[in-house]
Amino acid sequence: MATKSKPASSSSSPNSTSRKTSWSFFTVLLTVLSPVLVATLVCQLDPFEPAHFPIHELTQPPLKALKKNDHMLQGSELVGFKQLIGPEDIAYDSNSGVIYTSCADGWVKRVTINDSVSDTIVENWVNTGGRPLGLALGHDNEVIVADAYKGLLKDKWRGLHEFLWDILEGKPYGRAMSYDPVTKETKVLAHDLYFANGIAVSPDQQYVVFCETPMRRCRKYYIQGKKKGSLETFIDNLPGLPDNIHHDGHGHYYIALSSEMTVALDLAIRHPFLRKLMGIYTKYVGELQLSKNSGVFIVDLEGKPTEHYYDLGLALISSGVKIGNHIYCGSLLYPYIVRLDVTEHPARATV
What we know:
GO terms for molecular function: hydrolase activity. By secondary structure, the protein is an alpha+beta fold.
């Protein structure tokens, strides 16, 4: 007896299989291309347009210090743990033995440190209502505060969120300025600087030294003497991005390096399009973690490197101050100040 075979179901027909394959391919293609198309559109429409840095001035290899400690976290102590939010800069009053530090919550805090960090006393001192950054002590021991939102403040009692964009944009908008508290007059000493950052007055009051972060250098501007009004290089080809600079009172400048010059940072400085991508990413997605081997680079009064303290685990160190046998490091990132006893953990001669 002959039997009739059942017709194949539509689900297993060649046409149905072909349609499924086509839709699967289209779905995968759409999934892959959509982010690319959106990113391309955002990149085209976003007005952020970085400029070229003068990379012909960055042709020499990074400088090396005569001595280094590349594991400075080993033996370091954490001062004011969880009581200091992003302590960006540090000023030390040797008369009272108190450290002033500028924090991200708007407070300039007073830190009293004893032999043990466990006995540290942290006080909320003055809230600027903005974001205090650079600190210095005046002639009468008043604390002078550079605030990202409020400008220059003095207390006896363009915003910060744009600072990364200022660096990525690669345009020389920076200036070095002086302010006379008597006449209340502000003068521009130098302009067309690439993210001017940190400033220190020389021990003889003849000049000031300030940093240009993306150019990895510090420059010297004479405020007295025969060279008054002239600008020259103090040190260049630093092994990282300089932030604040402090004189230790004993013939050395302590330059905070927020990061070593990584391959990613080097490529970004050389290629504006990469900086545009980085800027768009930080604007729409989140922060980029590019900093490593942050620390403090020490030079003499002639700008010659002497010592380098850093660690792979440190990021965004923004200030370094020598107090007694210790280096105190502030940062934009950590909820504490890093303290290292350099007599117990010294920098050693490099080979």
